[in-house]
Sequence to fold (390 residues):
Amino acid sequence: MANIEDLIESLARDAAPVKPAPHPLTLSLTWVAGAALYLVLSLWLSGLRPDLLQKLHQPWFLAEAAALALLFIATALSAAVLAFPDLHQMRKTAWAPAGLFALFIAIVVFAWRADLPPAPLPAHSFECTVSITLFSLLPAAWTFFSMRKFASTHYRWAGCVALLSAFSVGALWLRLHESTDSIVHVIQWHYLPMLGIGLIGWWLGKTLLKW
Amino acid sequence: MTVKAENLEALMKLSLDGDQRAYALLLQETARLLRPFLTKRLNAGCEVDDLLQEILLSIHKARHTYDGERPYLPWAYAIAKFRLQDHWRAHYADHLHHAVELSEVENDLAEPVTESAISYESISGEVQKLPPKQAAILQMIHQEGYTAKEVAEKIGMKESAVKVAAHRAYKILRKILER
Fold:
């Protein structure tokens, strides 16, 4: 008991003024704005797919891109909430990506069924996964760096969601840049690797966000 | 002195502004609230104190994640639960690390561990060199005459755990005495 009193006394002596962390909405908005800027710059440098205007008139492509953008926003918000020990008492917000993932999967499945006759597979394959991963490195590093300043009590989930957020920006970039019509290719090399990315994020969260 | 829950938020706000008295009062109140929470979940009193200190340090480290606008207690308990889970994880990992195969001790579990061919006095020097828990168990069994069940009750362990600890101690002693 005496030790506790001593500890409290010593902690109180160290109690310099502290600037409270930003609200998760502000934090996620910063991440989303930063990643959006990065996406626009990258598209400006790498170029938009030539048939983008035409593709935007296709409902399933539009729905897929919109769901991906929403997924990115929801995962960024969830990661921001998960960075706080008490989830900023916004537990339901932390679960926001779950519903959007379900919606995204449904859209991709419908897009796959609507792909009749199936578009030919492109010559390349894993290069897409590598490109998305490389593109995602910068937003992922930024998100993890920011999150380390907080105190996550759900560090595995936080890592998983943060990496999925970065990867969804990458997936969106490639979808707007690369002229690939084959939904089978897109599922196989753009979206399925998200499962592995989630697991890597889980591990990274444990390694980098533990405090 | 107890502080009303709604005042904890005010105290934390003052603490974030650097008010040392408010912070000390807040930590004292937090410790007072967390102690029964930990006592319910942990066996030994020393474990409660250690963990409570760890939680207070974590609260100090993470205080910037609290803005004074939302209830304080859910925030503090979230940190407490997190550290408690960490403690359990470490505790069970340690137990697994030191686990003994059941087949290794199943014969001994049936045997009366309180009876031994060697007198305790003749090996008490060696016993003192054992890990403190094992030494204490052997001392209680062989010097003070307690049964394994009584020892278990006295030190808050399961009877089988006392027998396993005694078995481990005998193994170490056997090795030493065979040299």
